[in-house]
Amino acid sequence: MSADTKQYVSWFRHSSPYINAYRKKVFVILLPGEAIAHENFHNIAHDITLLNSLGVKLVLVHGARPQIDQALKDAGIKANLHEEPSGKLHRQLRITDIDSLVHIKRVVGQMRINIEAMFSMGLINSPMHGADITICGGNFVMAKPYGVQNGIDYAHTGEIRKVNSEAILAQLESNNIVLLSNLGYSATGEVFNLTAEEVAAETAIALDADKLLIYSKESGILDKEGVAINKLSAEQAQKLIEEKIQQGGVDEALKNLELSVKACLASVSRSQVISYADDGAVLTELFTRDGVGTLITQEHYEQTRAASIDDIGGIMDLIHPLELEGALVHRSREKLEAEIQYFAVIEREGMIIACAALFPHDNQTAELACMATHNEYRNNNYGKVIFEYMEENAQTQGIKKLFVLTTKSPHWFLEKGFTESSVDALPMEKKNLYNFQRNSKVLEKKL
């Protein structure tokens, strides 16, 4: 087996938990007009088809801003755009008069046809061979006029009144992909021009979607150095929004942050921002632990907590390589089950990436043991996080002194305030069990 084949097999195996987790879940995907115009869109279509094949229920919301701008320019119509905050969202709204609406409907109709054609491909040598995708749409989004704001009449520009979630869910249950645009419909038979961003967010909320996936120019929300931020809680994202507003200007990152926070503070578990220019971005984001974009979540992405019996398998997978190296003493499943009440773990995306145990002894002394961090995360300070969690736990229990036995990491513990000690300083029951063949270093720390 070649190295490439082995790497592929390894990736495929590691992706299986995500495949199981995403099956029958609802994802809403925002495809701005820029994404559809990009040369990578055919690869995006292939990736979306794969998600559908894996049992993910998909709603696609496509924008058309650059296409509409070009159509209006060709028709000699000025594109009147205004930045208009709506609630907590900053939106660039187009004044849609009757002449503009005619061209907008034509553009959106053509784009819909082209998207449907893209998902109808089934050539033998294409990734979509045998997919048999059905795209459906309809008057699922009810709209109302945006009206007159700050003295400006927005005419046929609208905002969402209601998303018909029951009708959309019925289509998803039939394994159809639902395609929505930036157009909404009123009870009086009128058509209103909406923003695709608002349609995506409100649809995700109405459906209680598991994810809102946002394609953007950049590969996520970038920090000051231009590097994508891996994850943000909704609270952290809100602070970043406030900073951007104070700095002035409304950019794509601000809009994506606002959409994500709005969705997460409502009913959507997670929003993820990825680049439409990166081939395979959605697959890497969804089927690897670290992804390539920015995750905005209701809850903290990682959780440090007391361990439970359900964590036994994850802890064993974590400590087994260290046991083979001789860094940790072997613990059987039965022993772990008996001791699980003393353990704490860090969980990341359903995976145990760090653990530690705190065993109380006499005289307000406790042993810090079985500290382990997944080899992929050993440079990310997770050892420090789990240590501080256990130290705080010890103080809560009234522990006055911690001790550790280590063969590999004495310097790490010395940096955390431990000092060298001796076997004679150990509690009697631990001293009697000391393995002189391992010759572990004894360190202690007063709390």
UniProtKB/TrEMBL annotation:
Q: Which GO terms describe its molecular function?
A: L-glutamate N-acetyltransferase activity
Q: Which domain of life is it from?
A: Bacteria
Which Pfam families has this protein been placed in? AA_kinase, Acetyltransf_1
The regions listed as transmembrane in this protein's record are none
Pathway listed for it? Answer: Amino-acid biosynthesis; L-arginine biosynthesis; N(2)-acetyl-L-ornithine from L-glutamate: step 1/4
All copies of domain N-acetyltransferase, residue ranges: 302-447
Q: Where in the cell is it found?
A: Cytoplasm
Q: What class of enzyme is it?
A: transferase
**CDD domains hit by this protein:** AAK_NAGS-ABP, NAT_SF
Keyword hit for Nucleotidyltransferase: no
Question: Which UniProt keywords are given for this protein, alphabetically ordered?
Answer: Acyltransferase, Amino-acid biosynthesis, Arginine biosynthesis, Cytoplasm, Transferase
GO BP term, example: L-arginine biosynthetic process
- In short, the EC number is 2.3.1.1
Reactions accelerated catalytically: L-glutamate + acetyl-CoA = N-acetyl-L-glutamate + CoA + H(+)
InterPro entries according to UniProt: AceGlu_kinase-like_sf, Acyl_CoA_acyltransferase, Asp/Glu/Uridylate_kinase, GNAT_dom, NAGS_kin, NH2A_AcTrfase
The question of whether rRNA-binding is a record keyword is answered with: no
Cellular component GO terms held in the UniProt record: cytoplasm
What more the UniProt record tells us is:
In bacteria which possess the bifunctional enzyme ornithine acetyltransferase/N-acetylglutamate synthase (ArgJ), ArgA fulfills an anaplerotic role.
Family membership noted in the UniProt record: Belongs to the acetyltransferase family. ArgA subfamily.
Which PANTHER family does the entry link to?
AMINO-ACID ACETYLTRANSFERASE, AMINO-ACID ACETYLTRANSFERASE NAGS1, CHLOROPLASTIC-RELATED
- This one is known as Amino-acid acetyltransferase
What is the organism field in this record? Answer: SAR86 cluster bacterium
Give me the gene this protein comes from.
argA
